[in-house]
Write a structure and sequence with these properties.
heterodimer, A: 288 residues, alpha+beta, 2 domains, 9 helices, 32% helix, 31% strand, B: 333 residues, alpha/beta, seven-stranded mixed sheet, 6% strand, globular
C-alpha cells in the first residue's frame, strides 16, 4: 500500500498500510519513542482503506481490514485514523493471537512482579493503569496481558494508552507536558478519546516479562472496599475476559488454571482515582 | 496474477523454493495465505523445511488454529450424525469436512468454516425438522431470500446452531436448480461411500466432480485458489491409489455433464501446482482471477473479477430471471 509503517509493541509486530498519508503520519509521531522494528516478518498485517472507492476523496472514511476481520465492523471518519489503527491492532490480537493466552486486562509492574487488572468495560482499568504508570509503576499495557503458557510469565503490550472522556483532562493535568499526547478525537463511538504515550521506562523495558503477582477486579462508583473472590469465580471471570482461551484448547486451560492457582485475586470498589490508588498500594504492601 | 499469490502457489508446489524467499516475500506469502485460507496448508507443506525464525512462529500459530478448527469440524460432524440418527437415508459429507473425516491429504491443513451435507431431495422436510429440533435456526428471516433459496437454489437457506454458533448448508442438488447443467445428485448419493460408523462421503470420482462443479460452474472464483489446491491434492492422491482413476473420473464427469470443467480444472491445477504445463489464453484469464490478491491481502484486478461475477450469475440463471432477481435485490437495497 502507498503509505505504511511497521510498529513493534512488546513481542508483537504489526505492518500497517494506509490509503491516506494522514494516519501514518500521526502514528509515526505518536509512536516516535518506540524502537523501529528490525526487518522481520510481522505477526499481523493491517489495512486502513476507504469503505468504497469514492470514500477515499469524498467524506473519506476508514474501513478496518487485515489478516483477521469482523464483517460488521463500522467504518470511522478519516480524522479518527489513530483510533482506527488502534482498533485494527486490537482486532488482530483478539482474533489471531495463538502464541499467548490473551487476557483483556491492563497491567503494571514493580520489582519484576505484575499487577493484572481486568473487568467490564468502564471499570476503569485503563485509567488506573495510566495513573499507576505515572506513580513509580512500569506501565505494561491497558488492553491485553499476554500470558506465556510455557513459563506462566506475563508479557506486556504497552501501546498508546487510550484515554476516554473525563480521564483525558485528569491525565493531561497529571502529565503536564503536551508532547506525550496524540490528537484529541471527539465524537468517536466511545466518546472523546486522546492517546497518551507510556513513559520512557515503559517503552525501554517493553520486552521484559513479569511474574503475575496479583489479579485485581476493580469496580468504579462504589464506596472503597476490598473483597476476596473464590478460585472458581476468578477462573470463570478470566475465561470471559480472554478472547482466545477456547482456541488455545488444552494449553489455554493449563495456563489459566496455573494462573488462578498461583496468583492471589481481589475485587476492589472505588469512588475516585485517589481511593483506587490507595487500595492498590495497600493490597500490594500486604502481599509483600 | 500478482507476484505474492504466484509465490504462494510456487511454495505449495515446491516447498524447497522457500529457501529463496526474502523477508518481504515471506511477509506477503503469509498475508496472502491467510486471506485465501491456505495458511494451514502452507504450514503442513513447509514442515521440515528451513525457514526464518519469525516464519516458523507464524506457521506454528497457524497449526494451533488449524488443530482447533479441525476439532470443531469433527464435533459438528458428530452433532449432525446424532441429529440424523436412524434417519434411514445417507447424509453425505461434502467439501472440507469430508476430506478431514475421510483422512485424505486434502484434509491436512484444511480450515473448515461451514459444514456442508448432501441428502436426497425428497427427504428435505424430514432433514429440516431434525435440524430445527436439534437446535439449528434459520439465519435469514427475509421472505424473499427464503423464497429465492427454496425456489431456485441447490441448498436450503443456511442454518446456524443457536448454542455453538456454527453454520450448516444442506444441499439437495449439486448446482442451483436454474443452472443449465444438472449433475446427477441422485447417483452421487446412491453411489457414495457409506462407512460402518454411519459416516458417508462421495466416492473419489464424484468428490472431484463436486469440487470442480463448485469452483468452475458455480460462483465467481472467490476462494478458488484453495479450491484448486483441494482439487490438485485429491487428483494426486486418487491417481496414486488407482492408475486407472482418470478413466473412472471421465466416465463419471460425462454422466454429470462436467467433462469440460474437469479437463479445465486438471489443466489449471497441473499448471499451478504440478508439472507447470503452459496454458491457453482462456485458462490464463481464469488464472488471473484465481491469483487476484496482492501482498497486502487485498483483492486486485477489479475488472477481471467483475467479469467473473457476471459470468457466475449468467451460468446460474437465464437472463430474464437474473434481471428480475438483481432488480429485487437492488430495490431492497
Amino acid at each position: 500500500m502507498k503509505h505504511q509503517i511497521h510498529l513493534r509493541i512488546g513481542p508483537i509486530m504489526f505492518r500497517i498500510g494506509s490509503a491516506w498519508a494522514g494516519p501514518v503520519k500521526r502514528l509515526n509521531r505518536l509512536y516516535q519513542a518506540y524502537p523501529r522494528p528490525l526487518v522481520a516478518v510481522p505477526n499481523f498485517t493491517v489495512r486502513l482503506e476507504p469503505s468504497s472507492p469514492l470514500r477515499r476523496w469524498i467524506r473519506p472514511n476508514i474501513d478496518i481490514r487485515g489478516d483477521f476481520m469482523l464483517p460488521e465492523a463500522q467504518p470511522l471518519p478519516l480524522a479518527h485514523g489513530v483510533l482506527a489503527a488502534e482498533m485494527a491492532m486490537n482486532l488482530q490480537m483478539a482474533l489471531g493471537q495463538r502464541r499467548y493466552l490473551l487476557l483483556h486486562a491492563s497491567m503494571v509492574e514493580r520489582d519484576g512482579k505484575a499487577l493484572i487488572m481486568t473487568g467490564l468495560s468502564g471499570a476503569g482499568k485503563s485509567t488506573l493503569s495510566a495513573h499507576l504508570g505515572e506513580r513509580g509503576w512500569r506501565f505494561m499495557g491497558d488492553e491485553f496481558a499476554l500470558i506465556d503458557p510455557n513459563t506462566g510469565h506475563a508479557h506486556g503490550f504497552p501501546r498508546a494508552i487510550s484515554l476516554k472522556n473525563e480521564a483525558v483532562d485528569v491525565m493531561q493535568t497529571l502529565v503536564g507536558t503536551d508532547d506525550r499526547f496524540g490528537p484529541l478525537l471527539t465524537d468517536t463511538p466511545k466518546g472523546t478519546i486522546r492517546h497518551l504515550m507510556p513513559g520512557p521506562d515503559a517503552i525501554a523495558r517493553m520486552d521484559e516479562p513479569a511474574r503475575p503477582a496479583l489479579l485485581l477486579f476493580p469496580r468504579f462508583g462504589h464506596p472503597p472496599a476490598i473483597r476476596s473472590i473464590g478460585a472458581a469465580e476468578v477462573f470463570m471471570r478470566l475465561t470471559q475476559s480472554s478472547t482466545n482461551y477456547i482456541t488455545l484448547g488444552e494449553s489455554g486451560f493449563r495456563a489459566l488454571t496455573q494462573l488462578v492457582h498461583q496468583v492471589p485475586a481481589r475485587a476492589i470498589d472505588y469512588e475516585d482515582s485517589a481511593s483506587a490508588i490507595a487500595l492498590v498500594e495497600q493490597l500490594w504492601a500486604d502481599l509483600a | 496474477m500478482t507476484r505474492a499469490a504466484s509465490l504462494l502457489a510456487g511454495v505449495l508446489r515446491a516447498p524447497e523454493q522457500a529457501a529463496h524467499l526474502s523477508v518481504k516475500d515471506w511477509t506477503e506469502v503469509i498475508t496472502v495465505a491467510r486471506a485465501e485460507q491456505l495458511v494451514g496448508s502452507l504450514a503442513i507443506r513447509l514442515a521440515g523445511q528451513k525457514v526464518p525464525e519469525a516464519v516458523r512462529r507464524r506457521l506454528n500459530d497457524a497449526r494451533i488454529a488449524l488443530a482447533h478448527a479441525q476439532t470443531q469440524a469433527r464435533w459438528e460432524v458428530e452433532m449432525t450424525q446424532r441429529a440424523f440418527h436412524s434417519a434411514g437415508y445417507p447424509v453425505v459429507l461434502l467439501k472440507g469436512c469430508a476430506y478431514i473425516i475421510a483422512g485424505l491429504e486434502a484434509g491436512d491443513g484444511r480450515f473448515v468454516g461451514d459444514l456442508d451435507i448432501l441428502l436426497p431431495r425428497r427427504q428435505l422436510d424430514d432433514a429440516e425438522r431434525r435440524l430445527l429440533a436439534a437446535g439449528w435456526e434459520w439465519v435469514k428471516a427475509d421472505a424473499y431470500d427464503d423464497h429465492y433459496y427454496r425456489q431456485w437454489m441447490h441448498e436450503l437457506p443456511p442454518l446456524i446452531h443457536r448454542a455453538r454458533d456454527r453454520m450448516i448448508d444442506v444441499h439437495h442438488t449439486i448446482l442451483p436448480l436454474t443452472h443449465r447443467l444438472e449433475p446427477d445428485a441422485e447417483a452421487m448419493i446412491r453411489d457414495c461411500v457409506r462407512r460402518d460408523d454411519g459416516i458417508s462421503f462421495l466416492n473419489p470420482a464424484d468428490m472431484i466432480c463436486h469440487a470442480v462443479a463448485h469452483m468452475l460452474a458455480d460462483g465467481d472464483l472467490a476462494g478458488s485458489l484453495r479450491n484448486l489446491w483441494d482439487i490438485y491434492q485429491l487428483l494426486r492422491e486418487f491417481r496414486h491409489e488407482d492408475p486407472d482413476f482418470d478413466k473412472e473420473l471421465l466416465s463419471r464427469a460425462a454422466r454429470h455433464g462436467l467433462t469440460a470443467y474437469i479437463l479445465q480444472a486438471d489443466r489449471l491445477a497441473a499448471h499451478l501446482f504440478g508439472d507447470g504445463r503452459p496454458l491457453g489464453w482462456r485458462d490464463r484469464w481464469f488464472l488471473r482471477c484465481i491469483l487476484a490478491r496482492d501482498g497486502w491481502g487485498k483483492k486486485t484486478y477489479p475488472i477481471t473479477r467483475c467479469a467473473f461475477y457476471l459470468r457466475a450469475h449468467m451460468l446460474r440463471m437465464p437472463p430474464l430471471m437474473l434481471a428480475r432477481h438483481l432488480f429485487t435485490k437492488w430495490r431492497k437495497g
